[in-house]
Amino acid sequence: MIFISIMQKYEHFFYSHGKLLLTGEYFILYGAYGLALPTVKGQSFTIYYDKNYSGSSGLHWKSFDNIDKPWFEVFFKLPSLDICYDTEKKIAFRLRNLLLESRKIKKNFLKNSFGIFYVKTKLEFPINWGLGSSSTLINNIAKWASIDPYMLLEKNFPGSGYDIACVSNSKPIIFKLKNKKPHVIPINFNPPFKKKLFFLHLNKKKNTCEGIRFFRSKKNISSKSIDSISSITKKIIVCKTLKEFEILLLKHERIISGILNLPTVKEHYFPDYLGIVKSLGTWGGDFVLISFRKGMKKYFSKKGFHTILSFDEMIL
């Protein structure tokens, strides 16, 4: 199936930034404060509508990666949203579910349209980077349907909602669940030592839902540990030296390591590295934060890790 190269009518354009969680992973589910950082790269969402299309009413969706290569395509019949054609069943059904859930919230969404919608999504980062290909998609669909993105997230993923809050903002945020409702505070986070902070890609994709289920199965989560994570988050925001920053993040890693009964990512992969290595979000995958030490790039390259981005390259 060919995606038309010249669109008849521009309809909508939406955009969401990617996300990284610096502090609070897992614990924000229990009310701890977390610090989330929107990334420079995100996902765009462009919709064209041709009401004069002579065929059956439908929605033609095509997704492109960061090098403009199409990686997924599907055609839905409207208004039923039945799948007429797809390049990957699992993704097609997941997307259909998102659209149907959007319709449950907004009753007339994609229900009374005649003609054809052309949707083009474009990731600015590689799919395996874990910066929020799902959360940016959910946020963009919610914008299109004019619905609350948290409601759409809640029906599809078991997370806290920090990722939706982060991709919706153009500044770092403090996130907290209070009475199961997200509370978001945009902040300025511009540490004076940021030129010594980098992001290393582990190239080991982890399933967030599985990570959350594993953490929730633990019985040793105390109010003291929740308060400790919140305290670290508050101190991270205002700390002025790299040494203090590293000490706080090391304490953070040890708390979660104790709960999970797992070694930290540094203990597992880089025990002899002199700087900090901090997990970001689900443990064991995607990106980690590292602090600069002399010979840093050579050290990680020798271990087979070659993707390192500076703070300014990664964080908005």
From TrEMBL:
<protein>
    <recommendedName>
        <fullName>GHMP kinase</fullName>
    </recommendedName>
</protein>
<dbReference type="InterPro" id="IPR014721">
    <property type="entry name" value="Ribsml_uS5_D2-typ_fold_subgr"/>
</dbReference>
<dbReference type="InterPro" id="IPR047765">
    <property type="entry name" value="GHMP_GYDIA-like"/>
</dbReference>
<dbReference type="InterPro" id="IPR020568">
    <property type="entry name" value="Ribosomal_Su5_D2-typ_SF"/>
</dbReference>
